[in-house]
Specification:
Blueprint lengths: L11 H38 L6 H12 L2 H10 L4 H17 L39 H17 L3 H14 L6
Helix pairs in contact: 1-4, 2-4, 5-6
């Protein structure tokens, strides 16, 4: 017995529905990513305000607090919302951001320049981590970079009016300043 197909239904309507769903997913992913970075940075700012030192030990304390948090454990063990690996990666990125005093980003855990040194100051794989140290000499370009970073940090923690005021002062006082 043979069946003949006279015409196949158009897939266009289905394709448009899939594309619309993908656009919604992209939007939701971007929204989540922004909320994730902001929320984790706010936690790191709270750690700094509470006096946790930017040392290996201080960072280990932060990592443990994140990995062993009851809400996070429930999410990965009981709900399946998160994988334990994901929570560990968030913790690693947060520890690196905190130690190096840079904004949290999701890719920080993979950045070889952002490793945390051991207690003796060495990094796994060799080398020493540069410490900030005292500023004994600088130049205008370095000052501009530092100001731009400070403005970014202020905005990340919600100090937008403060950042705007500092930016206005810089634009008025420093010839050629560009953010």
């Amino acid at each position: 017995m043979t069946t003949s197909i006279k015409s196949i239904p158009s897939f266009t309507k289905s394709a448009k529905a899939l594309l619309a769903a993908t656009n919604g997913l992209d939007s939701a992913t971007a929204k989540f990513s922004g909320a994730l970075c902001t929320t984790l940075q706010q936690y790191l700012d709270a750690c700094a305000m509470s006096g946790i030192e930017r040392t290996q030990k201080g960072c280990a304390t932060i990592g443990k607090a994140v990995r062993e948090n009851e809400v996070m454990v429930k999410a990965w063990f009981h709900d399946g919302t998160l994988q334990q690996k994901t929570v560990t990666e968030y913790a690693q990125g947060m520890m690196r951001a905190y130690f190096h005093n840079v904004p949290f980003t999701q890719g920080l855990k993979n950045d070889p320049d952002m490793k945390i040194p051991s207690v003796d100051g060495t990094v796994k794989g060799g080398g020493k981590v540069k410490s900030g140290g005292k500023v004994q000499s600088t130049n205008r370009a370095e000052l501009d970079k530092t100001i731009a970073k400070m403005l970014e940090q202020a905005r990340l923690i919600g100090l937008t009016e403060f950042a705007a005021t500092i930016l206005d002062v810089c634009l008025d006082s420093l010839d050629g300043f560009k953010e």
